[in-house]
C-alpha cells in the first residue's frame, strides 16, 4: 500500500440526503450530504506487527487488504446501536473494493446516526465519487447483515442482506477505469463537503467472515486501521481472530 492515502472531498452539497434522515423534517434540516470517502490524509504510525500493518486514519477503522487485484469482498456484521446526545453525529459500516490509495470506492453498508437525540438507522450503496444511494428498507439496531461485492471486468454487483428482517438489495453497476487494488471492511465517520463529520457513539461493531477474493482477509497481511484525529483516538480496531473476525470500538476518551 502506498504510504500516502488520499482524501477526495466532495466539491458540492448533493441535492438529496440519506432518505432515512429525510423522513424527519428536523433531521433533514440538520443533515449534510453524506459521503463514504477514501481513507483520508496521510497514514501515520505505519508499521508492521506480526505481519499486520498498523495505521491511523481520520475517518476509517477496520481492515484493508492490498497487494493484488480484487474481484470480491464480503463480511457480516451486527448493526450497532448508537448512544445519542443532543449532538448530530454519524457512523457507517460497510465493505468495499478500492478506496485505499485510490479516488474511487465501490461499497455498500449501513448507517447509524444521531439527530436531535434520536437514533436513525439506514442502508445504502455508493460508487464513489458519486453520492450514496439509500435503500428504503427498514434497519434496526441489532439487525444481522451479510454483504458481498463481486466484480467481473468493469461490472460490479453489490449485495446487502438484512438476515434479521429478511430483505436483500442487489445493485449492479458498470464503471470503467477503476483500480480494484484494495478490499476493505470498515467502520467510518462519514464526510460532507466540509470534511469528516462527528462520529456517533456506536459502542462496538462486530465484523465476521471478512474475506477478499474468497480468502480470509488476514491472508493478505492487511492494514489494521484505527481512527484518530491528531492525538485523539476516535475508534480502535481489534486484532483478527481466525483471519476474518474483528471488532471496532468507539473510543469514549
From TrEMBL:
Record keywords, A-Z: Signal
Biased composition (Polar residues): 244-253
Spans annotated as Disordered: 231-253
Biological processes per GO annotation: proteolysis
Domain of life, source organism: Bacteria
GO molecular function, one term: glutamic-type endopeptidase activity
Record Pfam families: Peptidase_A4 (PF01828)
Active site: 188 (proton acceptor)
Biased composition (Low complexity): 231-243
InterPro entries linked to this entry: ConA-like_dom_sf, Peptidase_G1, Peptidase_G1_sf
Signal peptide region: 1-22
Signal in keyword set: yes
Matching PANTHER family: ASPERGILLOPEPSIN, PUTAITVE (AFU_ORTHOLOGUE AFUA_7G01200) (PTHR37536:SF1), PUTATIVE (AFU_ORTHOLOGUE AFUA_3G02970)-RELATED (PTHR37536)
Name the record gives this protein: Peptidase A4 family protein
Source organism of the structure: Streptomyces malaysiense
Amino acid at each position: 500500500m502506498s504510504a500516502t492515502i488520499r482524501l477526495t472531498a466532495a466539491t458540492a452539497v448533493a441535492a438529496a440526503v440519506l432518505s432515512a434522515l429525510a423522513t424527519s423534517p428536523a433531521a433533514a434540516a440538520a443533515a449534510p450530504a453524506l459521503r463514504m470517502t477514501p481513507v483520508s490524509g496521510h497514514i501515520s504510525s505505519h508499521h508492521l506487527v506480526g505481519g499486520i500493518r498498523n495505521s491511523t486514519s481520520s475517518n476509517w477503522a477496520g481492515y484493508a487488504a492490498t497487494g493484488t487485484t480484487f474481484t470480491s469482498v464480503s463480511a457480516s456484521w451486527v448493526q450497532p446501536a448508537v448512544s445519542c446526545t443532543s449532538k448530530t453525529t454519524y457512523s457507517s459500516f460497510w465493505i468495499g473494493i478500492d478506496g485505499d490509495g485510490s479516488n474511487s470506492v465501490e461499497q455498500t453498508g449501513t448507517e447509524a446516526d444521531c439527530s436531535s437525540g434520536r437514533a436513525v438507522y439506514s442502508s445504502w450503496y455508493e460508487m464513489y465519487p458519486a453520492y450514496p444511494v439509500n435503500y428504503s428498507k427498514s434497519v434496526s439496531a441489532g439487525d444481522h447483515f451479510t454483504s458481498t461485492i463481486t466484480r467481473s471486468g468493469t461490472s460490479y454487483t453489490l449485495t446487502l442482506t438484512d438476515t434479521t428482517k429478511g430483505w436483500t438489495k442487489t445493485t449492479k453497476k458498470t464503471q470503467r477505469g477503476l483500480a480494484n487494488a484494495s478490499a476493505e471492511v470498515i467502520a467510518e465517520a462519514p464526510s460532507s463537503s466540509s470534511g469528516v463529520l462527528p462520529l456517533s457513539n456506536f459502542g462496538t461493531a462486530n465484523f465476521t467472515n471478512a474475506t477478499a477474493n474468497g480468502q480470509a482477509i488476514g491472508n493478505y497481511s492487511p492494514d489494521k486501521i484505527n481512527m484518530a484525529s491528531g492525538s485523539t483516538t476516535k475508534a480502535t480496531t481489534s486484532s483478527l481472530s481466525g483471519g476474518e473476525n474483528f471488532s471496532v470500538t468507539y473510543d469514549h476518551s
